[in-house]
Design goal:
single chain; 105 residues; alpha+beta; Alpha-Beta Plaits; 4 helices; 35% helix; globular
């Protein structure tokens, strides 16, 4: 069963196009993580917040990524990390057009 990882943290930037340019190698590397399906990148420059919503094939894959990525971003000086892992209700998500085309509902 797929699991969703929600992460957010305080960050002073970059945001927007500059963020896309500076983090493109990181984005490509995320594609290589075990069990990774997709990520939606989030940012709020007005509040100096960033993060993402990730979908993983299993809870174990989400937990492993959370542990690794928390260490990585802590090494960048980011310490106020909020993270949660959720089960997904695929039938309801399909009804509301959630991007789960590869999952059984």
């Amino acid at each position: 069963m797929a699991h969703l990882l929600q992460m957010d943290f305080k960050m002073k930037g970059p945001f927007g196009d500059e963020m896309a340019k500076e983090f493109s190698d990181l984005a490509k590397s995320i594609n290589e993580e075990d069990g990774f399906i997709w990520k939606i990148w989030t940012e709020n420059p007005e509040k100096n917040e960033a993060g993402g919503i990730y979908l993983f094939e299993t809870k174990e894959a989400a937990e492993n990524y959370l542990e690794m990525h928390s260490k990585r971003i802590t090494s960048f000086g980011i310490t106020d990390i909020n993270a949660k892992i959720f089960n997904i209700n695929a039938p309801l998500t399909h009804i509301t057009k959630g991007p789960l085309k590869t999952l059984q509902g």
